[in-house]
Task: inverse folding
């Protein structure tokens, strides 16, 4: 029996291991990166100008009420000159710290259910749940929020494991209030924990499962209703509109169909961040291994394993079902890798129980986990590098545009003060030829800044310290100036075709 001091030391060491792994995976984000949301929010006109009340309102309308409380951290840091545009490495290190703490709590929750010989593999499997290519988007947007949400979800699960359900609900609610999809961390790992802890389905298992869904579902529902109430009170629009209170069975059925159809496609291609079918094949292989072992040794658990697995793999797409528009960027689907990690924990528990009879199988599974770990690490590094490359390319384009503007001003004697912009509806969110570029959907993790209408001219102003006013281009002007252009003319930045000057106005057609 270890003492409190020994236990504390043990988990400090585990935390250090997790932090080292998180740091090695996401270290490229110690560099300055840019995303459209934070850049637009922090750079208004000529200079740095944070409108904190607007950011708080946006957090409430976006269904992230606890994000307002987190500003108790970011506002004081901003006063010290630490924000998304200056010294962002501090915010990224905070994200790494909280993410590592969340992983440590998850490890503390699961580790007692496994033998000592399995601990190093449990550490790796849990790490794979949150250290994933899709988690890169949390670092793209920066700040501690993603890590705090993971830590709160893990704390909720730990208290659930200890039978303290009210405290568990509180932590789960706080987690979902930082970002809506965090209920998936709590629920997916919770279902895996039920399978691992219970040797058979019984009344106790059913009651625990119902409690899990009540805590996760109740937390998510409260958070989903927050922007509804706030938008009604303020007569504002939700940032991400949901179908709650404005749908029928037919519309809900269509939402479910389209959400899961797209979800299955994403499991296949993973937005190009992993090799095609790679994750899907691993999922099937691990499930088959586990089912084969259960058929030979523990048949009464096959049904519980299959049902638990099906529910776990249905959860990652559940968030998009309630959205008015099916919305599946990678940050909303980190549940895929949480589900993969949970599936591995269940599989490894079965292998551990019958280890002496399946040592070769255990070695094969461990080898597959190691291969996935290496591919996963490479994918994270590649995606992070693509974000940096994309940012640099956009900054170079902004400087090129400024040179062309100044050349026009010298030749014409006019001073450009207004930029009128149109965005192609078929535009994509990444430059061609970057490694994670893909054509499946418009949501790669390599975020361009200027393809968002709220940040195109703001980024031009930011890079060049200018103060151009922005206007949307009318359909009449778009047809007059750019109607003769072909789609291939917008494959890349071409100032000759995409920039037109008239007096003090620049007409800019975004590609």
Result:
């Amino acid at each position: 029996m270890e003492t409190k001091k020994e236990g504390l030391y043990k988990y400090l060491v585990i935390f250090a291991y997790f932090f080292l792994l998180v740091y090695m995976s996401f270290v490229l984000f110690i560099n300055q990166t840019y995303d459209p949301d934070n850049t637009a929010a922090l750079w208004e006109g000529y200079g740095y100008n944070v409108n904190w009340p607007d950011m708080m309102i946006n957090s409430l309308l976006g269904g992230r009420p606890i994000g307002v409380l987190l500003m108790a951290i970011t506002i004081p840091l901003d006063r010290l000159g630490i924000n998304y545009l200056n010294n962002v490495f501090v915010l990224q290190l905070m994200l790494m710290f909280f993410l590592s703490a969340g992983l440590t709590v998850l490890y503390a929750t699961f580790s007692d259910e496994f033998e000592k010989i399995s601990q190093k593999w449990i550490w790796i499997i849990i790490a794979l749940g949150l250290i994933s290519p899709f988690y890169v988007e949390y670092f793209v947007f920066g700040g501690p929020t993603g890590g705090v949400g993971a830590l709160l979800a893990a704390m909720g699960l730990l208290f659930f494991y200890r039978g303290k359900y009210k405290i568990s609900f509180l932590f789960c609610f706080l987690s979902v209030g930082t970002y809506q999809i965090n209920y998936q961390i709590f629920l997916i790992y919770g279902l895996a924990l039920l399978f691992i802890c219970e040797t058979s389905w019984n009344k106790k298992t059913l009651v625990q499962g119902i409690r899990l869904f009540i805590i996760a579902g109740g937390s998510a529902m409260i958070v989903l209703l927050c922007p509804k109430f706030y938008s009604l009170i303020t007569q504002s629009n939700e940032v991400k509109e949901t179908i709650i209170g404005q749908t029928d069975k037919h519309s809900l059925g269509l939402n479910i169909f389209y959400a899961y159809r797209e979800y299955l496609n994403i499991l296949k291609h993973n937005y190009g961040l992993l090799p095609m079918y790679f994750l899907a094949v691993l999922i099937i292989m691990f499930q088959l291994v586990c089912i084969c072992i259960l058929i030979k040794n523990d048949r009464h658990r096959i049904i519980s394993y299959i049902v638990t697995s099906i529910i776990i793999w249905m959860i990652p797409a559940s968030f998009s079902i309630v959205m008015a528009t099916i919305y599946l960027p990678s940050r909303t689907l980190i549940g895929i890798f949480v589900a993969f990690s949970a599936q591995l924990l269940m599989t490894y528990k079965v292998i551990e129980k019958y280890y002496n009879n399946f040592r070769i199988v255990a070695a094969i599974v461990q080898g597959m986990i190691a291969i996935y770990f290496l591919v996963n690490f490479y994918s994270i590094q590649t995606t992070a590098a693509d974000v940096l490359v994309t940012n640099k390319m956009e900054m170079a384009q902004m400087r090129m545009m400024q040179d062309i503007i100044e050349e026009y001003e010298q030749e014409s004697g006019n001073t450009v003060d207004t930029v009128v912009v149109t965005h192609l509806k078929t535009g994509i969110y990444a430059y061609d030829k970057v490694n994670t570029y893909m054509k499946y959907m418009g949501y790669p993790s390599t975020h361009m800044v200027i393809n968002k209408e709220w940040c195109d001219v703001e980024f031009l102003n930011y890079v060049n310290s200018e103060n151009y006013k922005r206007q949307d281009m009318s359909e009449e002007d778009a047809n007059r100036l750019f109607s003769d252009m072909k789609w291939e003319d917008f494959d890349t930045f071409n100032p000759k075709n995409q920039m037109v000057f008239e007096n003090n106005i620049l007409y800019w057609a975004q590609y």
Observations:
- The chain is about 65% helix and 5% strand.
- Residues 359-412 form the longest helix (54 residues).
- The mean pLDDT is 85.
- Residues 385-510 form one domain.
